[in-house]
Amino acid sequence: GSAGVDSISGNTVEVHFFHNNQPLHKVTGTLNEMGLMVVNDVPVGFGVRPLVRIEHDGVTYQEAGPVMDASNPDASIEVTVFETTPVAPAWRVVSRQVIVTPADDRLLVSESVFVENPNDRTWLGSDEASNGKLTTIELTLPERTENITLHAGFHGWCCTTFESGTLGVQMPLMPGRYNYQFTYEVLSEDGTGTLSVGAPAETTELAMIVPESGITAQANGLEAGSVQMTEQGPLRLYTGREVAAGVRPSITLTGLPTAPSPAARVDEPAPAPAPNDGPGSTVLIFLVGVVVVGIAAVLILRRSA
Fold first, then answer.
1. I need a surface site. Which of 99, 144, 155, 182 has the fewest CB within 10 A?
2. DSSP letters along 17-62, please?
3. DSSP 260
4. Which has the minimum average pLDDT: 159-163, 194-198, 285-289?
C-alpha cells in the first residue's frame, strides 16, 4: 500500500484456522516474489475460518477470510501492508461523539472517536511515555476523570496510557480510518460537572449529547442543536466543527443529581436498574467509507484432497 515499494517477498505469514471461534490449526510460511502464498490441505470438512497475519517492516497486519467448508472449499484473502515512518502524519479526528448520562456525584461518559491517517505509511509514534513506549493517538479527557474502560479499537492497557489527563494509544497508526470506543466517569460537585475534551490534532466534528430535563447546560465553543426524544427522556445535541488542534470545547452542567448524605439514607433494597441504563444506552451509528488502493499480498487457501 506504500508508494515506491517494488516487492514484499520473504515476509513472514501466519494463517490461523478457527472452528466455532476456537483455534484449530496454524500454518506458517513466507511470501514468494509475487507477494503470494498458497496453502493446501485445508481441513474444510467441518467448517473453518482463516485469519491471516503478515509481518512487514516490524508491524503485523491481519485480515479474516470467509468460512470455508465442503460447499466453499477455496478462499482468496488479500492483505495490504505498508512501510513505516517515524514522522508524524497530518492525522485528524474525523468525528468524536460524547454521550453523557448523569449519576450521583458523577457523569457517566461514553465516547466513540474516529481517527484518520491520510498518509500511505504506518506511523510508529512519538512522545515516549513513562512506560518507555511511543504514542500515536492522544485524546484529552475532562478534569476529574476516573474509571476508564477501553472497548473497541484498543489493545488493552498494555498499549494504552492515561497520564496528565490524556489518553494515549501506543500502537502503530496505519493508513486509513480507525474507531476507538471507551467509557469513563467524571466527578461532579454540588450538582455541577464540566466536560472538556480535545486533541493535539484537528477535530473535524465534535458532538456532545446531554440530557435536557432538569439540567442546565452552559456550552463554550459548542453550538446548541436539536432535541431528540428517547426512552431516557429528551437529549440535546451540542456540536463543534473544525476544532483546531489543542482547543478544548467544554460544557458545564448544573442541576445534576447528588448522593444523599449518610444520615438521609434508608436501609432498603435498591431498585433494579432500568434496561440499557449506563453510558452506552444511546446508540449512535456511523457510516464510514474507507477506500484502500493497492494490494500487497494475496493468499489462496485450498481444501484438503
1. 155
2. EEETTEEEEEEEEE--TTSEEEEEEE--TT-BEEEEEEEETTEEEE
3. P
4. 285-289
205 and 141 in contact (C-beta within 8 Å)? no
Find out whether 146 and 109 touch, Cβ atoms under 8 Å: no
Residue 131: all three cell numbers together: 512506560
What backbone torsions phi and psi does residue 264 show, to the nearest 5 degrees?
-90, -10
75-79/176-187 β-pairing: unpaired
Torsions phi, psi for 46 (to 5 deg)? -120, 15
